[in-house]
From TrEMBL:
Signal peptide: 1-33
Gene Ontology MF terms: acyltransferase activity; peptidoglycan L,D-transpeptidase activity
Pathway linked to the protein: Glycan biosynthesis; Cell wall biogenesis; peptidoglycan biosynthesis
Residue span, L,D-TPase catalytic domain: 252-382
Active-site residues from the entry: 332 (proton donor/acceptor), 350 (nucleophile)
InterPro entries reported in the protein's UniProt record: Big_10, LD-transpeptidase, LD_TPept_cat_dom, Transpep_catalytic_dom
Protein name: L,D-transpeptidase family protein
PROSITE patterns linked to this entry: LD_TPASE, PROKAR_LIPOPROTEIN
Length: 407
């Protein structure tokens, strides 16, 4: 037999080489192709879509679509799932603050519990499971609208202040509000100790909050004004996000008797001083009712022209003046009243206490009362021949029943 030489030997070596390559390809295809139990995705069996050997049937949808701009701050964001249940939804703004929301419908959808801020980028991460427990995830990002027209609220009391037991939290808006429920929902009030606090609208630009009874002394109140992004009226959005804190001081309520010409000053229910006063004379009677101190002025000018009384008076240096109504009712020092205090009514509707011109004497009744009063204290007038003060005239919502207040 002749030995194999030349091309024949090379041909056999070539066939063996081809066979080896073919074998390697078979192994390679077996490794990459998978079998019927192989999952999709990463191919290592550890990805979310490969749990229990198969792609999840759960299909997560995020509205608005990723990359969307000019998104409305209310009603546009929603996460839903078909053929599965949501197990996790996380929405964050660009600073990492989470948006509160709830999964509802047995896991079918998620919506935010509050409005979104304007001109803000948000990211959404949602996870769902199908009936086999296989997970599916979806991510998106979008940016909310930048409003062309805005509103804000000015408020009282000031942040960090200590106020009397009658002080409501009152907000005046720079634009008339036509979506009051949305705006009221955006103002959250927390108290220590806890007490039910409700809001009441006076017209369309003022919203006051108070408890059923006067605040308990020492109560700490925290108000979150989360107005940024709230659509207060069509096309007009809030631009304010602020936290306000104030504390309720000692309980002082002063009761003026217009017929007896006296005022009893009580603290914690006990009378600490009785002061002779003069109230509105016939035709200019003082309002009855509960009135809350809203401003303190060491000296001020009082001109009858400003309250519809023509030129009947113009006193440029009224001392120790405390405002009780927006319309111009004050309890103040009076150095021109002569013998009226404790004897007869001589004012144009205010409550007058004996004082000296310039207010320099700290021992007179008006100075004592001014120095022992704070914004938010209550003055109650009774037995006057006039009607009860309008609750909207000043911070005087206490003249409404709790049922009417909550309407």
């Amino acid at each position: 037999m002749r030995p194999v030489t030349g091309a024949s030997a090379r041909g056999r070596r070539g066939r063996r080489g081809l066979a080896a390559i073919a074998g390697a390809l078979v192994l390679s295809l077996a490794a990459c192709g998978g079998g019927e139990d192989s999952g999709a995705g990463s191919g290592n069996g550890k990805g979310k879509d490969a749990v229990k050997g198969g792609q999840s049937a759960a299909a997560v949808t995020i509205a608005p679509k990723s990359g969307a701009t000019g998104v409305d701050t209310s009603g546009a964001l929603k996460v839903s799932v078909a053929k599965g249940k949501l197990t996790e939804v996380t929405v964050k703004d660009e600073k990492g603050a989470k948006v509160a929301g709830a999964i509802t419908g047995g896991g079918a959808s998620w919506t935010p519990s509050r409005h979104l801020a304007a001109a803000t980028k948000y990211t959404v991460h949602a996870v769902a499971k199908d009936s086999e427990g296989r997970e599916s995830a979806e991510d998106a990002s979008f940016t909310t609208l930048t409003p062309q027209n805005t509103f804000a609220g000015t408020f009282t009391p000031e942040d960090g202040s200590t106020v009397g037991v009658g002080m409501p939290f009152s907000v005046h808006f720079t634009r008339g509000i036509t979506n009051p429920d949305d705006v009221e929902k955006a103002i959250r009030i927390r108290t220590e100790p806890a007490v039910d606090v409700e809001g009441h609208w006076f017209g369309n630009d003022r919203l006051d909050f108070r408890p059923e009874q006067y605040w308990k002394e020492g109560t700490k109140v925290t108000v979150d004004l989360d107005l940024d992004g709230v659509e207060g009226r069509d096309g007009v959005y809030g631009e304010q996000h602020k936290t306000v804190k104030f504390t309720i001081g000692r309980n002082q309520v002063s009761v003026v008797d217009a017929k007896k010409h006296t005022m009893k000053v009580t603290q914690d229910g006990k009378t600490v001083k009785t002061i002779p006063v003069t109230t509105g004379k016939p035709g200019y009677d003082t309002w009855n009712g509960q009135m809350v101190m809203s401003e303190k002025l060491t000296v001020t000018r009082m001109n009858g022209e400003t309250v519809g009384y023509g030129g009947e008076y113009d006193i440029k240096d009224v001392p120790h003046a405390i405002r009780l109504t927006t319309s111009g009712t004050f309890i103040h020092g009076n150095y021109w009243g002569g013998g009226a205090f404790g004897n007869f009514n001589a004012s144009h509707g205010c409550v007058g206490l004996r004082d000296v011109r310039g207010g320099y004497d700290s021992s007179v009744p008006a100075a004592w009362f001014f120095n022992h009063s704070m914004i938010g204290d209550v003055v109650v007038v009774k037995n006057s021949d006039d009607r009860t003060v309008d609750p909207a005239n000043g911070l005087n919502g206490w003249n409404m029943s709790w049922a009417d207040w909550k309407k």
